[in-house]
C-alpha cells in the first residue's frame, strides 16, 4: 500500500464532514484553479501539487527533501485542505508520509507560523510547500512538536539522519 | 392360378376402359355407381386374394388414361402461351404505362374473352378427367377393401390412399412437360388482364361520378354490401363467374400454389404501380389513408373472386385484407424512404409525406432500411467537397426536424446524423457557419447561405445544463454508428424510448433541439462560444459606432441557452461598447485647458475621433498587425488618451491603431468620393495628400509595416483607381503614385467596406501539439499520485484542465500517453501510467 | 490638380489597463485588468488600489483581507496598510498615445 493511494482515496471521504461548506465557493474555486494553472506552468523546484479527487478543495502535495540535508532523496506526500475562506484563511496542511522532524508530530501535523498567525492572503499552495521544504532543512527547535528530534537536531547528526530514514516510508531515492 | 390370372386380366382391362372412358360426367362422377362388369371384376380380384396389387395397378392405369385426357389441356396451354407471348416479356414498367394509358387497345399478352373461355373449358375438362378417375379409383379400391377381409394393415392403407395419391400425381400431370413456369406466366397474364378490366371499370365508374372518393377510394363503403353477387362490381356477371371458375378449377387441379403466387404478384404489382405513380406526384399531401382504402376496394374485390367462396374464403379474404394493408404500409414507407433526402430538402412542405412515413414506420419494421438508405443518400449527395458548409448544416437541421417528426423517441437521428457530424467536424468553417446562422438577421440569412437559425435561439426548451454533461460528441457518434449496424427494429417498435447508443448524445436534449445538436457536434459548448465571441468581436470592432442592440438581444438568448457564466466574456464585450459610448462623450467634453497637456496638444481638435475602448482580457485575441499612424492622427490619439487619463486615472489607454474604421471624403480631380476603410487604408491615402509619389520601401517604413503588407492594402486603392504603381527596371519594389483623376481600376475590386476586417484563419492544428498543453497536468498528477490508470487521468483532465478546456476523447488521450511512453517520459505497466524519474 | 483627403470620422480602438503591470492581484490571483472572483465587470466596477507600500490589489480583495485580520497589514510585505491616493491625471502623460508595442 503506497502513500499515494491512501491520500488519493481519503478526500472522497473527507468531503462529507464539512458539508456545511458555504454555497458560494466560486471565488475560492477560481483562485485554486488559477494556482493549479500556475503550478502546471512552472513545474520543478522540488515541490508539486494536484487536486486529490473530485473537488478543488483537497489537494495532494509532494515535496522533495533538499540536497545536502538529512531529507535528501526523500519524497514526502502532504495533504492540503482548503476552506471556503481561502485565501483569507490558511489551508490545513499535514504530512501523509511519516516525517521525523522537530516541527512535525507523529500525526503529520506541522508547526509553521505561516500556516497559523503569520498567514497571508498572498500565500499560495506553492509558497506553502516551499516554506515546508525550507522548514525541513531549517527547523525551528524553539517550539518543537517532536522533542526528541529537536534534541538531536544539531547535536547528533548521524542519529538524526538514521531516524529520518527509519521513519520515512515513501519511495526510496532513485539508485538506493 | 390360371383363373386368378384371368380374373386379374379381366379386371385390368375393365378398369382401363372405364378410366379412359371417363366413367360419367366429371364433377358429379362420385355419385355414379360402378359399371356392373367392373364391379364383378373387382370382386373377382378380391376373391383371388389379389387385393394388394390393385392400388398400384389402378394408379398406373389411371395416370396413363389421364395423360391422354389432358392432351386437350396441354394443347390449350401451349396455344394460349403463344397467343399471349407478346406480353410474356413485358416488364412491370411497360405494364405500368399500359395501365396508365387507359383502356384503348388490348395490349399484347392480354386475354380475350375467347381465350378465357378456352382456358376455362380446358381446365374444366381436366377437372372432370381427374375427378372421374379419382372417383372411380376410390370406388374400386373401396370395393376390393370390403371384399377381401384378410388384408394386412399396409395393404389396407395403400388401398385407402390410392385416390389421394392419384390426385397428387394428377397435378403433376396437369403441370405437364411445359412445367410450372409456363403455368405461372400464363396465370400471371390472365389475372393481370382480369384485374385490369376490373380496375378500368372502377375508374370509369368513378369518373362517371357513381362513386365518391378522391381517386384512390373506390367506394370502400360499397364493399360491405357487395357480398357474393357481382352486382356491385359494375362488371358483366360473366367477368366474375369465369374468374371464379378458373380459380376454382385450378384449386381442384392442385395448382393452388402456382395460382396464388400469380394473383398475389399481380395484386401487389397493381397496388405498387398505383402507389409509385401517386408518390411521385406529390409529397405535399398525404397518400397513406387513400392508399389503404384503395387496397380494400379493387384489389380485394378481385381477390374475393379468386379465393374460395364460403367460410374458408372469408378467412382467407380477411388475411388478405391485412396482408394488403401491411403491403401498403411497407410500399408507401419504402417509397418515402427512397425519397427521404428530397423530402428533407423540401421540409417543411414535405410534412404530409413524412407523416405518411411515420405511420408506415409504426406499422412495419422499416427503421433499418430508413437509416441505411438515408445515410447513403446523405453521404452521396451532401457530404462531398462540392457542398457548401452552410448547405450541409441547413440540410442537417432539416434532417433533425424531419426525423424528430418521424421518430419523437430520437432513436433514428444518431445513426443517421453520425456521418454528417463527423464530416462537419472536419470542415473548418463549420463552427463559424453555425454561429453565423444562429446570430444572423433573418434578412441577412436570405443570401443562400442557409436560412437563419436565429429563431431557434428563442426556442428555450433545452436548458443550458444539457450541454454540461460530459459527453464527447465523437464518441457518441461512434456508438451511434455501431448501434446502427446491429439495429433491431423490434426494440423501436416495442419501446419508443431512444436506442441505447443514441441516448447519451442528442437524446438528452431531445432530438428536436437543433441548437443542442449543432453545438454537440463539437462536444463542448466552449469551442462554440469561443467562436461566437470571435465573431462578435469582429462585428463590434467593424462597426465604427456603438450601436449593438441586436447583439445584446442575441446575447440574452444565448445566455438562456448556455448559462450566464459561459457568456460572461461576451457580456463584458457588449458592456465595453456601452461604456465606450459614455466615455467617448465625456472625453469629448473635457476642455483642453483643464488638463496639464502640453501646449502643442492642446490645439489638437479631436472632434472627428471616437473610440471603442475594450477590456482586453475579455475579448478574443485582437488583430496583432499594427502600424504607426500618421503624425496628425497620432497627435489626436494621444490627446484623446490624455483626456481619458484625466477622467480615469490611474487607468490609461493602449491604442490598437490597425483596428477601427475611418470614413473619409476623397477629392480627386473634379470628383468627390466617399469611403469607409480601415485606419491603415486611410493613413496610406493621407500620405499621398502631401506627396504625389512614394517608393514602396519608404512608405512601408513610414508606417512600420512590411512592404508586402503595405502592398496588400494599397491594392484596394489601385483597384479604386485612386493610386497607381510603377516599377523602374531593376527595382525590386514598385513606386506608388496618386492619380490625378479617378481611373477606372484594373479590377472592379470589392465594395468600399473592403479591408475593414480581414480575418485570417489560425494555422492548422496538429493533434499532438494540441495535446501538449495538457502535458504539465499529466505530469503534475503523476508526480502526486505515483501511478494512475488512463480513465482516471482522463477524468482529472476533464475536471481540472480548463485553459484550454480539455475536450479530448479517451482514445486521443491514450494515443498521446502512448507517445509519451514511447518518448520514455512515462512508463506504463498493467494499465497504470507512471512518471519516469 | 486636387488630391485632398478629408477625414470625416476616425473610429479607433484601444484597450484600457490599470497600468499595474501585467501582474495578477496577489489575493485573488486574477489579472488586475480582469475582475476579482466576486466582481462581474472589470474596470470601473473592479477598481485596483495601491498601498503606500506600492503593492496593488483589487479593492474588493484588499478590503476583505483587511476585514478578516485584526491588524491592517499588506499581505505581501506586512507593512501597515494605507491606501495611496489616486494618481493625478496627466502625471505620466508622456507615456500616453504610444502605439501598442
From TrEMBL, chain A:
Short name of one Pfam family: UQ_con
Entry-linked SMART domains: UBCc
SUPFAM superfamilies cross-referenced by the UniProt entry: UBC-like
Gene Ontology terms for molecular function: ATP binding; transferase activity
Range of residues in the leader sequence: none
InterPro entries noted in UniProt: Ub_conjugating_enzyme (IPR050113), UBC (IPR000608), UBQ-conjugating_AS (IPR023313), UBQ-conjugating_enzyme/RWD (IPR016135)
Record keywords: ATP-binding, Nucleotide-binding, Transferase, Ubl conjugation pathway
Protein name: Ubiquitin-conjugating enzyme 19 family
Biological classification of the source: Eukaryota, Viridiplantae, Chlorophyta, core chlorophytes, Trebouxiophyceae
Region feature Disordered, mapped onto this chain: 1-23
Catalytic residues, chain numbering: 111 (glycyl thioester intermediate)
Domain UBC core intervals: 27-173
The family this protein is said to belong to: Belongs to the ubiquitin-conjugating enzyme family.
From TrEMBL, chain B:
Keywords tagged on the record: Cell cycle, Cell division, Mitosis, Ubl conjugation pathway
Signal peptide: none
Location of the Cullin family profile domain: 518-718
Organism expressing this protein natively: Micractinium conductrix
SUPFAM superfamilies: Cullin homology domain, Winged helix' DNA-binding domain
Protein name in the entry: Anaphase-promoting complex subunit 2
Molecular function in Gene Ontology: ubiquitin protein ligase binding
InterPro entries: ANAPC2, ANAPC2_C, Cullin-like_AB, Cullin_homology, Cullin_homology_sf, TPR_ANAPC2, WH-like_DNA-bd_sf, WH_DNA-bd_sf
PANTHER family to which the protein is assigned, alphabetical: ANAPHASE-PROMOTING COMPLEX SUBUNIT 2
GO biological process: cell division; metaphase/anaphase transition of mitotic cell cycle; protein K11-linked ubiquitination; ubiquitin-dependent protein catabolic process
Homology family: Belongs to the cullin family.
Acidic residues bias (residue ranges): 90-107
Cellular-component GO terms for this entry: anaphase-promoting complex
Pfam families, per database record: ANAPC2, Cullin_AB, TPR_ANAPC2
Keyword Cell division attached: yes
Superkingdom as given in the UniProt entry: Eukaryota
Ranges for region Disordered: 83-110, 486-508
TrEMBL record, chain C:
Keyword Zinc-finger tagged: yes
GO biological process, one term: anaphase-promoting complex-dependent catabolic process
Cell division is among the record's keywords: yes
Key words of the record: Cell cycle, Cell division, Metal-binding, Mitosis, Ubl conjugation pathway, Zinc, Zinc-finger
GO molecular function: cullin family protein binding; ubiquitin protein ligase activity; zinc ion binding
An annotated GO cellular component: anaphase-promoting complex
Domain of life: Eukaryota
Matches recorded under Pfam families: zf-ANAPC11 (PF12861)
Gene3D superfamilies membership: Zinc/RING finger domain, C3HC4 (zinc finger)
PROSITE patterns named in the record: ZF_RING_2
InterPro entries reported in the protein's UniProt record: RING-box_E3_Ubiquitin_Ligase, RING-H2_APC11, Znf_RING, Znf_RING/FYVE/PHD
Domain RING-type: 25-78
Protein's recorded name: Anaphase-promoting complex subunit 11
Species of origin: Micractinium conductrix
Amino acid at each position: 500500500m503506497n502513500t499515494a493511494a491512501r491520500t488519493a482515496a481519503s478526500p472522497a471521504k473527507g468531503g462529507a464532514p464539512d458539508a456545511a461548506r458555504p454555497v458560494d465557493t466560486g471565488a475560492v474555486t477560481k483562485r485554486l484553479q488559477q494556482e493549479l494553472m500556475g503550478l502546471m506552468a512552472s513545474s520543478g523546484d522540488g515541490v508539486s501539487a494536484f487536486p486529490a479527487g473530485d473537488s478543488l478543495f483537497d489537494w495532494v502535495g509532494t515535496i522533495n527533501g533538499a540536497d545536502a540535508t538529512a531529507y535528501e532523496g526523500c519524497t514526502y506526500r502532504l495533504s492540503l485542505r482548503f476552506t471556503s475562506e481561502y485565501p483569507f484563511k490558511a489551508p490545513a496542511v499535514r504530512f501523509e508520509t511519516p516525517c521525523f522532524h522537530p516541527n512535525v508530530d507523529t500525526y503529520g501535523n506541522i508547526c509553521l507560523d505561516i500556516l497559523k498567525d503569520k498567514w497571508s492572503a498572498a500565500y499560495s499552495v506553492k509558497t506553502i510547500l516551499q516554506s515546508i521544504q525550507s522548514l525541513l532543512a531549517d527547523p525551528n527547535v524553539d517550539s518543537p512538536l517532536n522533542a526528541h528530534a529537536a534534541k538531536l537536531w544539531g547535536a547528533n547528526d548521524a542519529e538524526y539522519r538514521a531516524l529520518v530514514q527509519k521513519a520515512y516510508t515513501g519511495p526510496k531515492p532513485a539508485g538506493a | 392360378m390360371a383363373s386368378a390370372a384371368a380374373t386379374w386380366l379381366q379386371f385390368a382391362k375393365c378398369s382401363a376402359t372405364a378410366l379412359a372412358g371417363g366413367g360419367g360426367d366429371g364433377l358429379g362422377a362420385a355419385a355414379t355407381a360402378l359399371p356392373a362388369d367392373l364391379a364383378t371384376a373387382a370382386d373377382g380380384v378380391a376373391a383371388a386374394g389379389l387385393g394388394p396389387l390393385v392400388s398400384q395397378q389402378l394408379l398406373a392405369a389411371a395416370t396413363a388414361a389421364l395423360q391422354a385426357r389432358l392432351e386437350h389441356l396441354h394443347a390449350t396451354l401451349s396455344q394460349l402461351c403463344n397467343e399471349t407471348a407478346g406480353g410474356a416479356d413485358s416488364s412491370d414498367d411497360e405494364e405500368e404505362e399500359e395501365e396508365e394509358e387507359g383502356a384503348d387497345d388490348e395490349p399484347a399478352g392480354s386475354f380475350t374473352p375467347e381465350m378465357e373461355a378456352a382456358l376455362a373449358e380446358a381446365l374444366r375438362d381436366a377437372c372432370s378427367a381427374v375427378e372421374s378417375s379419382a372417383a372411380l379409383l376410390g370406388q374400386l379400391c373401396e370395393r376390393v377393401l370390403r371384399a377381401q377381409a384378410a388384408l394386412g394393415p399396409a395393404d389396407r392403407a395403400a388401398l385407402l390412399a390410392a385416390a389421394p395419391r392419384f390426385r397428387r400425381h394428377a397435378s403433376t400431370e396437369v403441370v405437364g412437360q411445359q412445367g410450372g413456369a409456363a403455368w405461372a406466366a400464363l396465370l400471371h397474364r390472365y389475372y393481370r388482364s382480369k384485374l385490369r378490366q376490373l380496375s378500368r371499370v372502377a375508374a370509369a365508374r368513378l369518373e362517371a361520378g357513381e362513386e365518391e372518393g378522391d381517386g384512390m377510394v373506390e367506394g370502400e363503403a360499397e364493399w360491405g354490401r357487395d357480398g357474393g353477387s357481382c352486382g356491385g362490381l359494375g362488371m358483366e356477371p360473366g367477368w366474375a363467374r369465369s374468374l371464379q371458375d378458373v380459380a376454382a378449377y385450378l384449386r381442384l387441379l392442385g395448382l393452388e400454389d402456382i395460382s396464388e403466387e400469380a394473383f398475389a404478384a399481380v395484386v401487389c404489382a397493381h397496388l405498387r404501380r398505383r402507389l409509385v405513380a401517386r408518390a411521385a406526384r406529390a409529397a405535399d399531401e398525404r397518400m397513406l389513408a387513400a392508399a389503404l382504402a384503395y387496397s380494400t376496394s379493387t384489389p380485394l374485390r378481385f381477390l374475393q373472386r379468386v379465393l374460395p367462396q364460403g367460410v374458408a374464403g372469408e378467412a382467407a379474404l380477411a388475411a388478405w385484407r391485412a396482408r394488403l394493408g401491411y403491403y401498403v404500409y411497407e410500399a408507401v414507407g419504402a417509397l418515402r424512404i427512397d425519397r427521404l433526402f428530397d423530402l428533407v430538402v423540401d421540409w417543411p412542405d414535405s410534412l404530409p409525406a413524412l407523416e405518411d412515413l411515420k405511420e408506415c414506420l409504426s406499422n412495419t419494421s422499416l427503421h433499418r432500411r430508413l437509416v441505411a438508405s438515408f445515410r447513403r443518400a446523405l453521404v452521396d449527395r451532401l457530404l462531398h467537397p462540392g457542398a457548401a458548409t452552410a448547405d450541409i448544416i441547413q440540410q442537417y437541421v432539416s434532417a433533425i426536424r424531419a426525423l424528430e417528426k418521424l421518430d419523437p423517441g430520437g432513436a433514428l437521428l444518431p445513426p443517421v446524423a453520425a456521418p454528417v457530424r463527423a464530416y462537419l467536424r472536419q470542415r473548418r468553417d463549420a463552427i463559424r457557419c453555425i454561429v453565423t446562422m444562429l446570430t444572423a438577421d433573418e434578412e441577412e440569412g436570405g443570401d443562400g447561405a442557409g436560412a437563419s437559425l436565429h429563431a431557434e435561439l428563442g426556442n428555450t426548451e433545452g436548458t443550458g445544463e444539457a450541454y454540461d454533461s460530459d459527453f464527447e460528441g465523437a464518441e457518441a457518434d461512434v456508438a451511434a454508428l455501431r448501434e446502427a449496424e446491429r439495429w433491431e427494429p423490434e426494440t423501436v417498435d416495442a419501446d419508443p424510448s431512444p436506442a441505447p447508443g443514441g441516448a447519451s448524445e442528442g437524446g438528452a436534449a431531445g432530438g428536436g433541439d437543433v441548437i443542442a445538436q449543432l453545438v454537440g457536434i463539437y462536444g463542448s459548448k466552449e469551442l462554440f462560444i469561443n467562436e461566437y465571441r470571435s465573431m462578435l468581436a469582429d462585428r463590434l470592432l467593424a462597426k465604427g459606432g456603438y450601436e449593438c442592440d441586436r447583439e445584446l438581444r442575441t446575447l440574452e438568448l444565448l445566455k438562456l441557452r448556455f448559462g450566464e457564466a459561459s457568456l460572461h466574456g461576451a457580456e463584458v464585450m457588449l458592456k465595453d461598447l456601452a461604456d465606450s459610448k459614455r466615455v467617448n462623450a465625456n472625453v469629448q467634453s473635457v476642455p483642453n485647458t483643464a488638463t496639464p497637456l502640453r501646449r502643442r496638444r492642446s490645439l489638437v481638435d479631436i472632434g472627428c475621433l471616437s473610440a471603442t475602448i475594450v477590456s482586453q482580457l475579455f475579448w478574443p485575441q485582437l488583430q496583432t498587425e499594427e502600424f504607426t499612424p500618421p503624425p496628425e492622427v497620432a497627435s489626436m490619439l494621444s490627446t484623446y488618451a490624455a483626456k481619458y487619463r484625466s477622467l480615469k486615472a490611474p487607468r490609461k489607454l493602449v491604442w490598437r491603431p490597425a483596428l477601427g474604421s475611418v470614413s473619409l471624403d476623397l477629392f480627386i480631380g473634379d470628383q468627390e468620393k466617399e469611403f469607409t476603410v480601415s485606419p491603415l487604408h486611410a493613413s496610406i491615402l493621407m500620405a499621398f495628400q502631401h506627396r504625389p509619389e512614394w517608393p514602396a520601401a519608404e512608405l512601408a517604413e513610414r508606417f512600420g509595416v512590411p512592404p508586402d503588407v503595405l502592398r496588400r492594402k494599397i491594392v484596394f486603392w489601385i483597384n479604386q483607381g485612386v493610386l497607381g504603381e510603377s516599377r523602374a527596371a531593376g527595382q525590386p519594389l514598385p513606386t506608388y503614385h496618386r492619380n490625378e483623376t479617378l481611373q477606372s481600376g484594373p479590377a472592379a475590386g470589392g465594395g468600399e467596406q473592403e479591408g475593414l476586417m480581414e480575418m485570417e484563419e489560425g494555422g492548422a492544428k496538429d493533434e499532438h501539439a494540441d495535446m501538449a498543453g495538457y502535458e504539465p497536468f499529466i505530469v503534475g498528477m503523476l508526480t502526486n499520485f505515483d501511478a494512475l490508470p488512463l480513465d482516471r487521468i482522463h477524468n482529472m483532465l476533464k475536471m481540472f484542465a480548463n485553459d484550454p478546456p480539455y475536450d479530448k476523447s479517451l482514445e486521443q488521450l491514450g494515443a498521446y500517453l502512448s507517445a509519451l511512453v514511447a518518448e520514455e517520459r512515462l512508463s506504463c505497466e498493467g494499465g497504470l501510467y507512471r512518471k519516469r524519474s | 490638380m486636387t488630391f485632398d483627403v478629408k477625414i470625416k470620422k476616425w473610429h479607433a480602438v484601444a484597450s484600457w489597463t490599470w497600468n499595474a503591470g501585467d501582474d495578477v492581484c496577489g489575493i485573488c490571483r486574477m489579472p488586475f485588468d480582469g475582475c476579482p472572483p466576486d466582481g462581474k465587470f472589470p474596470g470601473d466596477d473592479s477598481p485596483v488600489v495601491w498601498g503606500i507600500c506600492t503593492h496593488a490589489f483589487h479593492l474588493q480583495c484588499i478590503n476583505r483581507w483587511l476585514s478578516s485580520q485584526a491588524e491592517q497589514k499588506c499581505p505581501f510585505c506586512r507593512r501597515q496598510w494605507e491606501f495611496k491616493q489616486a494618481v493625478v491625471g496627466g502625471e505620466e502623460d508622456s507615456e500616453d498615445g504610444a502605439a501598442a508595442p
